[in-house]
Amino acid sequence: MDNGILIKKMINEIQKSCIEKLNIMEVCGTHTQAISRSGIRSLLPPNLVLLSGPGCPVCVTDESLIDAAVEILRNDIILATFGDMVRIRGSLESISDQLHKRKNIFVLYSPLDCLELARDNPDKQVVFFAAGFETTAPGIALTVKLAYEENLHNLSFLTSLKLMPPVLHKILREKQKKIHGLICPGHVAAVMGAGYFRFVAGEYGINAAVCGFEPLDIASGLLFLTKKISSGYESAFANLYESCVSEEGNETAREIMMQVFDIADGNWRGIGEIKKSELFLNENYCSFDALKKFNIRPDKFVSDQRCNCSDVILGNIMPYECRLFGKACTPQKPAGPCMISSEGSCSAYYRYWEAGL
Amino acid sequence: MEELIRLSHGDGGKYTSILINELFYKYFGNEILLKGSDSAVFSISKRKLAFSTDSFVVKPLFFPGGDIGKLAVCGTINDLSVSGAKPLYLSAGFIIEEGFSISDLSKIVRSMGQICKETGAMIITGDTKVVEKGDMDGLCINTAGIGVVENSYMPKKIKKGDRIIITGSIAEHGTAIALERYKIKASGTFASDCGPVYNIIRSLAPFYKGIKLMRDPTRGGVATALNEISASAGKGIRIYENTLPIRREVNAVCSILGLDPLYLASEGRVILVADPGMSQEILECIRSCKDGENSSIIGSFFDNGNSLVYMETEAGGRRLLNTLEFPMLPRIC
After folding, report:
1. How many domains, chain A?
2. What is the pLDDT of residue B333?
3. In a 3-state reduction of DSSP, which class is residue B171?
4. Whole-structure pTM value
5. Which of A123, A254, B280, B302 is the most buried (most CB within 10 A)?
6. Pairing between strand B122-131 and B139-149?
7. Which residues of B touch A36 (CB under 8 A)?
8. Is A317 a member of any domain?
């Protein structure tokens, strides 16, 4: 059967089983974007509200780290980073504000490409500014390991690598809105295993499903959750992305990650410090830490008062409930990080907004 | 000839002449250009003229399916073609960074000459400047062109129900460039669709009365071009996801990189607005042309007083397609 027809059938079922008002959170930015892009959001019954969670790496990178990147750029170095990181503002400037003055900023897709940059520019320091979650961390860990083995002394890493469970614990503990179900990120689970998210159901009594990113994957996740919720279940859990996700995950990827990183307390933009929520280069690899190499101590966390991004990613408000949304904050002139990345929930809402159609 | 471009290649002296004689004349050579006068002099019949210019600063300079030279000639030729004109004469201005490889420059100039040969357009005047190393990155090309409007083609008022046709698969150029730029090794065929669209448009001559507008979806892609058309027509556009010609490989690469094919450039495609009564015949005519096999009717106009573009997705949902506000960048995870 054609995917479109299958999805329509599922949406019909969802509409039938969605009697009360339900809040379902999709944790990951890629899901947020796919939900808007596929038009699924416009098909859901009005009493099913999808809340966007904290899973966009750009949105949760602390201002102080952007400031550090801008500070490092004052040296005669090469800075490489992922796409959307160049547009996010620190307390004053973004990396893209530096673009017109400098030619030493590279946007990479694979972290491994920064090895080549370092090899090709032996007389220059190359800094890779890496943000992400458990999804990108193994690739970055591998890059650090290879740089170490190759003795690439001119390469270092500025990292903002966050872990999912601590922020989910925070949301589920402090939740201001009742969350009835959670769509867990399939790619994090591919690395960490489906079991990584079982605590959502086990500890908090919230139905959860690990889902892929195609419209059909998302529709089946929503169908699973709404059915379970409407039949009174409180702790159902399913891995609906078995083609990519096993219960244990990818052991090799996890091992490399743990060889290179330690877990410590991390600063989340707009949210604040969360215990044991971030990966930092461990003792063996600390010579690759750009902050140490350039002797920069990021300022202690400063809260961004300009927008409500943190309330959006904690599921407290919908993007359009922010007073700046679509007015003082658009993708062209983003006031907050959620409007910057294509995965940011505000940007996804803005871009694929149903415009009263 | 030496290997690298020097400042002296742009000073109007001996080395400039060498470059002109050995490179530009070799590949662009035609009667008007070879006169070597300060300006090209030619006559044109008393018909409506089309005139267009475009500058090209693409990175990388070479990509699967083309290079900056091919792009520069096709860009201007296609702008003339979608105005209903036959491209006749072009100018080419080169701004080159000192130290640029002459063999790379030859490749670029050769592919410009090639497209001229294929389409019958001629480069009849040109200019070369060389800037100091570090003042720019490699090479920029500007082309301008003149064409004569054929078969009295003119844009017409767009009405509710008019159809939107695309002449081939979309986002091929943008995807090929992204693969090069981010060094992604993907299996499958990826090449820019960069090429002249004049032949397809010329074969549509019998249908010109049913064609209301032609536009090439280059920078900003199909979604941006449709937004421009919608705004100028003062009508809404609805397109259908399942009618969009996007190759599977292109879709796959775009989802890996987090790029949206609707916003990636095509460099050899045309969007046509057609009278609903003639749209099927027009589609069949395009499909019978070279490079037109994947042509498709992708949507139509509606009138609710708003200019907006939306897509009915495969899932049956609706998605608003805004104008691209800033260049897309690959996502993180």
Report:
1. 1
2. 56
3. coil
4. 0.84
5. A254
6. unpaired
7. 319
8. no
Cβ burial of B37 (10 Å; 0-12, 13-18, 19+) is: exposed
Interval B19-57: pLDDT, tens? 999 999 999 989 999 998 889 999 888 789 999 999 999
DSSP letters for A207-238: EEEEE-SSHHHHHHHHHHHHHHHHTT-SS-EE
**Identity (one letter) of the amino acid at B313?**
T
User: What is the C-alpha separation between A182 and A170, in angstroms, rounded?
Assistant: 14
**Edge-to-edge strand list for the sheet holding A181-185:** A48-55, A22-28, A181-185, A207-211, A237-239
Question: Residue B105 corresponds to which tokens in the numbers above?
Answer: 């420059």
* Dihedral over Cα of A72, A76, A82, A85: its sign: positive
Does residue A2 fall inside a structural domain?
no
Give the closest-approach CA distance of A330 to chain B in angstroms.
9
Domain ranges of chain B: 7-149, 163-320
The answer, for B304 touching chain A at a CB cutoff of 8 Å, is no
Q: For residue A87, what is the domain's CATH number?
A: 3.40.50.11740
Shortest Cα distance, chain B CAs vs residue A303, angstroms: 24
Q: Extract the runs of DSSP E, i.e. beta strands, from chain A.
A: 22-28, 48-55, 77-81, 105-107, 125-132, 155-162, 181-185, 207-211, 237-239, 261-268, 272-281
Q: Which two tokens stand for residue A144?
A: 């650090």
**Nearest Cα residue to B85 out of B178, B154, B141:** B154
Among all residues of chain A, which has the CA nearest to that of B259? A342
Tokens at B313, concatenated: 């997705």
State residue A89's pLDDT score: 78
Pick A57's closest partner by Cβ from B320, B330, B333. B333
- Is residue A102 a part of any domain in this protein? yes
CATH class of B163-320: alpha beta
Write down the CATH superfamily of domain B7-149: PurM-like, N-terminal domain (3.30.1330.10)
* Segment B107-124 mean pLDDT: 96
Do A58 and A341 touch, CB atoms closer than 8 A?
yes
**Secondary structure letter of residue B83 according to DSSP:** T
Distance CA B271, CA B245 (A): 12
Is A50 among the domain residues?
A: no
Interface of A with B in 204-223 (CB under 8 A): 213, 215, 219
**Nearest-CA distance B257 → chain A (Å):** 8
